[in-house]
Amino acid sequence: MMRKTVVKCACLCIIFLCCANAGLAQFNLQAVDGRLSNLEPRQTYTLSPVIPNSLPLSPIINGWETGVPALIRIARSSDSLFQVEFTLPPALHDGRGNILPCSFSTNSLWRAEDEQGFNPHSINAFSGFSQTFSLGITVAVLEDFHGGVYEGDIICTVRTLGENQPVEEQSITVKYHAKLRGLQVTLTQNYPNPFTWWTDIDFSTPDPANITLKLYDQLGREVVRLFDNVLFAPGQYRYELLPDGLSSGVYYYRMDAIAVNSSANPTSVVRKLILKK
To answer: Which CATH number is 233's domain given?
Structure first.
């Protein structure tokens, strides 16, 4: 009797295939999302399969690229020996016609239990009630790449070793969230704060950008637009805010920046200031 169970979670789509049998140890599969952040177009990145909270991608182009590998957890009702075999995809898809070409190196499979790397292209044997695998990945970011959730089918055949032991089939879905680099602008806390007569707001941008700076009250209503969609060259800047026409209270200033000549995502930064008259 053939059985197929699909479990979905949020980032790379991994499908485990193996034949159900009443005498076979049962598997409970869980998946944890992967993430690729601050990518640059026209670059190829490799994410290590090791499992800290966040890893730098290789190579480092803009200094901000990080990633977290997807995890696959297998809980079993038996600690008997079993084999795992993967069939890996050539690309991930976002469901909107966009692709993220990918590949997997010979040491891109990592098992947390013994902190050891494995070749996902080979048949590997394991034992024990619980296994946690992380999967490293190499992705080629195309020139017209759009950030989003990318999926790709990975077929995994699991065989419990022993006489008259068939193959069990299960499925699980994992996804990778992939994002382009955001524009790395900075917006410092105004000084002095609180203030009465004037205060300075410092900001910087590493790329040419159109920048807007607005002031809001505590209810989120726009009070004044300090400057709107002004083109700034890369550099550091200071804006002197004079509280003409403003009453005492708490305000929020927000900077919106849109890169001009790069593919960096738009960025918004918000700070709080206090006016005392």
So the answer is: 2.60.40.2550
**Rounded-to-integer distance, Cα 70 and Cα 35, Å:** 7
Question: What is the CB neighbour count within 10 angstroms for residue 191?
Answer: 11
Same domain, 11 and 137: yes
Instruction: State the amino acid at position 93 in one-letter form.
Output: H
pTM for this entry: 0.64
Domain final residue pick, 180, 209, 244 = 180
pLDDT for 28 equals 72
Counting as low any pLDDT under 70, the low residues of the chain are 1-27, 51-53, 163, 165-166, 169-171, 262-264
Q: pLDDT tens digits for 226-266?
A: 999 999 998 999 999 999 999 999 999 999 998 887 666 78
Number of compact structural domains in the chain: 2
Q: 150, 180, 210 — which closes off a domain?
A: 180
The span from the CA of 112 to the CA of 44, in Å, is 26
* 1 domain residue, yes or no: no
What does the pLDDT look like over 7-33, one tens digit per residue? 333 334 433 333 333 344 466 777 888
Cα–Cα distances (Å) from 119 to 87, 109, 122, in that order, read 12, 6, 6
Q: Where are the beta strands (DSSP E) in 108-188?
A: 109-111, 116-118, 124-126, 130-135, 137-141, 148-150, 154-160, 167-168, 171-172, 176-180, 186-187
CATH assignment of the domain containing 18: 2.60.40
Burial class (CB in 10 A: 0-12, 13-18, 19+), 16: buried
Structural domain harbouring 203: 186-275
Q: Verify that 168 and 267 share a domain, yes or no.
A: no
User: How many residues are present in the chain?
Assistant: 277
Cα separation of 210 and 233, whole Å? 9
Q: Please give the pLDDT value at position 4.
A: 39
